[in-house]
Amino acid sequence: AEGHIRGAKPIPLSDISKRYTEIMQDRPVFVICRTGRRSLQAQKVLLDLGMTNVRNVRGGIEAWKSEGFEIVKSANAVWSLERQVRFLAGFLVFAGVILALVAHPFFIILPGFVGAGLMFAAVTDTCAMGMLLAKLPWNKTANECCLVDKTINGIATKEKSVNSN
Questions:
Q1: Which SS3 state, helix, strand or coil, does residue 56 take?
Q2: Which of 26, 28, 47, 87 is the least buried, fewest Cβ under 10 Å from its Cβ?
Q3: pLDDT digit string (tens) for 68-78?
Q4: H or E, element range at 3
């Protein structure tokens, strides 16, 4: 991840149901991820597990940053999945064209396959390449939700700008 809110406890979405006992339940818990999609899923899991005061920060870290609030930069930040998908798709198209010109015309199928995959991803709003990349070891910490289970300086006033639900 490119950064987190000071005091947040990063927990991968896939581990939430196993590690929810680490979360203080005597105060509000704010769940946040990069854009708010995974944290919404995390909120549902925590509510299903019996937690009652769980709030999702809509828009995630991106909204938090756009409002001018501080984040702690991660020293070993991994590229976002979207950026990794763009890089890999571009690389596969480029490699396919070069290989078709240099090695064998059959390699032209590679850019066509990538193009078809990108169109399918747009139509279905899913991304198989992104889902595969998310399973790679360096992305395990990048796909985490941050659980803020203690008071953050001024979060009550910030809630008005960065909506939580």
A1: strand
A2: 26
A3: 888 887 766 77
A4: strand 3-4
